[in-house]
Amino acid sequence: MTGQKADNVVTAAFLVIGDEILSGRTKDRNIGFAADYLTSIGIDLKEARVVPDEREEIAAAVNALRARYDYVFTSGGIGPTHDDITAECIAEALGVPLILDPRAVAILEAHYPPGQFTPARQRMARIPQGADLIENKVSKAPGFKIGNVYVMAGVPAIMQAMMDAIAPTLATGKKMLSETVPADMPESRIAERLAAIQDTHPQTLIGSYPQADNGKFTTQIVIRSRDEAILKAAAEDVAKAVAELSG
Amino acid sequence: MTGQKADNVVTAAFLVIGDEILSGRTKDRNIGFAADYLTSIGIDLKEARVVPDEREEIAAAVNALRARYDYVFTSGGIGPTHDDITAECIAEALGVPLILDPRAVAILEAHYPPGQFTPARQRMARIPQGADLIENKVSKAPGFKIGNVYVMAGVPAIMQAMMDAIAPTLATGKKMLSETVPADMPESRIAERLAAIQDTHPQTLIGSYPQADNGKFTTQIVIRSRDEAILKAAAEDVAKAVAELSG
Question: Which of A44, A81, B75, B137 is the most exposed place for a label (fewest CB within 10 A)?
Fold first, then answer.
């Protein structure tokens, strides 16, 4: 469904697969990257999940998310080691066989010195039947796309390169625009005004985000809308309220 | 259920609530913090989710997670503004009324100058009936605990203070221990050996994490177990394999 959708809203979920995130060993950076990236191209990230390297957990999450959202993007678990089980779990979730994909074999055979495309490395060529490959410019081993599920590597640099590879093929909606109004006050001081402004501008989403800087509370007010004029009108009302309350 | 559980495993999920994470405006740091924190006290984080500030999404996620895990920890959406809807959603999810909690009112009334405990600030005293409060040493407005659900602020400094407040009351399991063996090689070179070591030591979890540093691939191998002797034996086998393959 490349191109722009009729209702102007395209939704996605991001699924991080990996024990190392849940144990705290590795701090996830892929959700934040995907949130920025998808927002910038006109896809609304509606949910993110982190699940462990466990067969039933991965399959259940993929099936729950692919039924609810236009796209599911995953990161993690497609390397050559025994704990990389994402490809087989996706195949299982979608009810298709996992095959040694000739296209992936060709890419990896060309990448390794003769005789070094070992059984472990062949794991990275196991792809669910019927999937399209996602190019990996960084380390060659491809991701894949099957149905509305896009399966990418966990290493941020590789995941990001894969996002670049698939972005031109994705359907996008009308971009969500945003303006930020900083307020040098705790959010409780401006809360009632913001609620009234939100009521006056129902086609916007007004978010209030407190920050604690050296014990002093300030607030960032973020106004979001797909319509530039509506956004501007609401942001002006917010700026006016901030100015009045700062006086 | 304070104390140590009989089967030695206590599980948890972490739920981040907030449009700002899914839009990319704010990068979540609470999942990573909670992962480290819970691991260190003997609670296994088994799943994390990020959902938007939408009533049905919050309630559905809380109900799904509280049924599956010993504990659910949430962050975000308990401030004074119109977009802070977590307390009402949790009340709805648990089927209890949301009340103006006298204990929370007392804390906040004492905190603000006379006459400044405004209606917006009173929002922060709305707590599901039957909940216990969670102390907030940073900015006073309390979190709360109802059933196995712990509801905390989104601002990392406040969330972290709340974790400190509740940690002594949590049941914990036998701590998951870990050792890391670095390998100066791409993980595909050691993959077959790791699979064999994992088979030999079924009571461990062996994870292999590739890193790309300036175009050079190295690997961190993490062995985890709740049993120190089993952990040590497996880690020694991994270190031996790394040494042999490095030679």
Answer: B137
- Alpha-carbon span A174 to A171, nearest angstrom: 10
CA distance A28 to A12: 18
Q: Is A150 in the same domain as A60?
A: yes
Q: Which residues of A touch B32 (CB under 8 A)?
A: 21, 24, 27-28
Tally the domains of chain A: 2
List CB contacts (< 8 A) between B23 and chain A: 35, 39, 45, 176, 178, 222, 224
Same domain, A7 and A39: yes
Look at B22 and A47 and tell me if their CB atoms are within 8 Å. Answer: yes
- Provide ipTM, 2 decimals: 0.94
Domain end marker among A172, A206, A226: A172
Is the CB of A118 less than 8 angstroms away from the CB of B178?
Answer: no
Residues B104, B213 within the same domain: no
pLDDT digits (tens, 9 = 90+) for A10-31: 999 999 999 999 999 999 999 9
Pairing verdict, β B98-100 and B3-4: unpaired
* Residues in chain A closer than 8 A to B118 (CB atoms): 188, 191-192
Examine the domain organization and report whether A209 and A99 are in the same domain: no
A187: containing domain: 177-246
